[in-house]
């Protein structure tokens, strides 16, 4: 009873990165709470899936394997999670803030009357004193997320309902293997006992998967452009620099909204979270909603005409100048060396 649970998403036999990130966080939370880490994988042809998750320090893997459970549809996944959580009574249940997690999380939490904090960027264990009702709570999950358009960071707690549920943004937590030799238990779920016939009213007839060619999430070098780049044509300078140094092109929301770059390149609170070795910010002012998605970069170079631009506070190197002058010089230098 009262363990930490992570719902693992699966796509074409592979556990999603966000789920592995959550298992890493879940292991730390379970250690802090001195309890076990459990995970549930729902889908089809899941033989051997435990080998993907065990190295992250999982003590028990629940597997619901049935051909009707892949691809994902809301109702059977909800029924399985609700029943499992009613039986196992986890104190914490986590899932990715993906399109699946955003669909599934609220349904499960409302069926369990537990509440849910969406889009968390950090999770820690802490105590709470309710002075009004003279109550003290130990070992609560602090669910931390930006609020009011990113202007504040809110810490949300759920003292009385269980499980404490949260969805967590992709890429904000690190993925770390505990040990390749980590051994947990595997428990197969008898799907028939967990689902109802009416859960299968929705039939997926055909799926079209659009595979993105853009991979900024895992890029080691990112050349990101903002509104200050000025035009779509000027973005070609960023593409050229990125090609020369083996990086990907990213963008601020203002640049995406202006049509300079596609949405899949957007970095920040409502875009992708990245942590490259090198982040070159070109014509980006550095508003909190943008820096929320890149502040973990190992090294930042900021190029901006404004020597007081907020991005400079995050930068290891600041180049005060016009990108139209600075970028061609950088491209030339890198090409020569
Ligand atoms: P600006 O703030 O306009 O900055 C342009 C910069 O370019 C300035 O610093 C200027 O000095 C510099 N500049 C101008 N000309 C040149 C030149 N020739 N050479 C060099 N520098 C030059 N933003 C995001 O990026 N990602 C998000 O995910 C995101 N989510 C949001 C969510 C919400 C709910 C809200 C309310 C906002 C969000 N935003 C997000 C928007 C964010 O608040 C800022 O508006 C946006 O990041 C600004 O983008 P920018 O820095 O490109 O543009």
TrEMBL record:
InterPro entries: DHS-like_NAD/FAD-binding_dom (IPR029035), ETF_a/b_N (IPR014730), ETF_a/FixB (IPR001308), ETF_alpha_N (IPR033947), ETF_asu_C (IPR014731), ETF_asu_C_CS (IPR018206), Rossmann-like_a/b/a_fold (IPR014729). GO terms for molecular function: electron transfer activity; flavin adenine dinucleotide binding. FAD binds at residues 252-253, 266-270, 283-290, 304, 322-323. GO terms for biological process: fatty acid beta-oxidation using acyl-CoA dehydrogenase. Binds 1 FAD per dimer. Residues 4-204 form the Electron transfer flavoprotein alpha/beta-subunit N-terminal domain. SUPFAM superfamilies: Adenine nucleotide alpha hydrolases-like, DHS-like NAD/FAD-binding domain. Pfam families: ETF, ETF_alpha. Its cofactor is FAD. SMART domains: ETF (SM00893). CDD domains: ETF_alpha (cd01715). The keyword Electron transport applies. It comes from the Bacteria. Keywords: Electron transport, FAD, Flavoprotein, Transport. PROSITE patterns: ETF_ALPHA (PS00696). PANTHER family: ELECTRON TRANSFER FLAVOPROTEIN ALPHA, ELECTRON TRANSFER FLAVOPROTEIN SUBUNIT ALPHA, MITOCHONDRIAL. Belongs to the ETF alpha-subunit/FixB family. This is Electron transfer flavoprotein alpha subunit apoprotein. It comes from Marinifilum flexuosum.
């Amino acid at each position: 009873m009262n363990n930490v649970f992570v719902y693992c998403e699966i796509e074409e036999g592979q556990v999603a990165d966000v789920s592995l990130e959550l298992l890493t966080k879940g292991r730390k939370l379970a250690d802090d709470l001195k309890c076990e880490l459990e995970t549930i994988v729902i889908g089809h042809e899941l033989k051997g899936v435990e080998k993907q998750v065990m190295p992250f320090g999982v003590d028990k893997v629940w597997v619901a394997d049935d051909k009707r459970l892949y691809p994902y549809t809301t109702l059977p996944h909800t029924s399985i999670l609700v029943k499992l959580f009613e039986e196992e009574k986890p104190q914490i249940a986590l899932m990715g803030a993906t399109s699946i997690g955003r669909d599934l999380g609220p349904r499960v939490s409302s069926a369990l009357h537990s509440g849910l904090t969406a889009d968390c960027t950090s999770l820690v264990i802490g105590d709470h004193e309710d002075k009004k009702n003279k109550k003290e709570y130990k070992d609560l999950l602090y669910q931390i997320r930006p609020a009011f358009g990113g202007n504040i960071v809110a810490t949300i707690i759920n003292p009385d309902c269980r499980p404490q549920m949260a969805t967590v943004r992709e890429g904000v937590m690190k993925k770390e293997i505990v040990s390749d030799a980590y051994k947990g238990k595997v428990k197969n779920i008898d799907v028939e006992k967990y689902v109802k016939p009416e859960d299968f009213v929705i039939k997926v007839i055909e799926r079209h998967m659009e595979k993105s060619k853009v991979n900024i999430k895992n890029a080691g070098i990112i050349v990101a452009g903002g509104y200050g780049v000025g035009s779509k044509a000027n973005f070609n300078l960023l593409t050229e620099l990125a090609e020369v140094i083996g990086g990907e092109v990213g963008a601020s929301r203002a640049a995406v909204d202006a049509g300079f770059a596609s949405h899949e390149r957007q970095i920040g609170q409502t875009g992708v979270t990245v942590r490259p070795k090198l982040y070159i910010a070109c014509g980006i002012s550095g508003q909190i909603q943008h820096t929320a998605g890149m502040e973990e970069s190992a090294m930042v170079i900021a190029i901006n005409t404004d020597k007081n631009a907020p991005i400079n506070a995050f930068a290891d190197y600041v180049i005060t100048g016009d990108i139209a002058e600075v970028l061609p010089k950088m491209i030339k230098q890198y090409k020569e060396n």
